[in-house]
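This protein record is not my work; I was only asked to verify it. Take the sequence as given and treat only the tokens as open to question. I have pasted the whole thing underneath without changing anything:
***
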Amino acid sequence: MKKNIGNALALYPTPLVVVGAMVDGRPNWLLAGHVGIIGHDHVMVSLAVAHYTNKGVRESKKLSINIVDEGLLSRADRSGCVSGSKEDKSALFDYVVDDAGVPMISQAPVTMVCSVEDIYETKGFESFICTIDATYAEERVLNEAGKIDYRVLKPVLFEMPTYEYLRTGDVIGKCMSFGKDAE
């Protein structure tokens, strides 16, 4: 029998990302654990209202989503430990700025540049509904077909409520292959 554990969010783990945005003329970076897919070309980035990064996202209507691998983990974790309102985090990562003025972490194996279409507010959070404008990936993480190979990328996963980082696991099979033989 299942036990009711309240309204616990049970969709974790999720890939760990660092959100980048220009705030007051310089890049700011923020570790984000609430990022979700809402369509083939749309994502939602949900940030606590108090975050300094929100100001830049609201003003520019642009942000980057930088996927974290183990090589980036210590600096990514640092980006979540301090507020950009108290410490300049612009030098935390090497970065480039795209044509639309969005900062992207150079060392991130995959970065999505997004435009904010809408902001959905819930108690204590601003959820930025975004269109993916472009996705940049290091060639080393792409397969022969030019698609991201997550076995090579190996994104760090974030698990909540334990606040732990996990390694990605093994492939267990292809989607829609198990059900063919099931009755």
Summary: The first strand starts at residue 14 and ends at 15. The CA atoms of residues 37 and 122 lie 18 Å apart.
